[in-house]
Amino acid sequence: MTDDQFIGLAIEEAGKSQAAGGAPIGAVLVKDGKVVATGWSLVWPKKDPSAHAETECIRSACQKLQSLDLSGCTLYSTLESCSMCLGCASWAGVSKVVFGAYKEDVPDNPYEVVDYKAEAYSVSLCSPLGGKIDVRGGVLRSECAELMRKIKHWSPVE
Asked: How far apart are CA 97 and CA 79, in angstroms?
């Protein structure tokens, strides 16, 4: 499968998240071309600020694989990973992060770091497992940005 196809799967997960009362953000973790785990944004349903789609996906993958080492895995997300999620991916040794919408595509939802860019931030990360994370954004960008159209200040708007 291609990056576009895996982001398509993340978009499907975003729909499940929204149906469960979460923000429409989804993530998929892939190793050797196979989906290892999926995750949804569960911040609102769990009342847990760390329950982002990416962290939920990483937690699920570590449990499924019974390992904290996700080297060789690619994390796909519908939205640019925040600094917490990118840091979590680094700690787990994720090799690559691919995302759809950039934070500037969702201007009504400010990030925690001014002028944040995941692709630039990743350069400064040092995984405890060694290696660097390759980050690439903009895959199915408009489709992913559309998911967040009715979300403002990280809350749903009617």
From this structure: 11
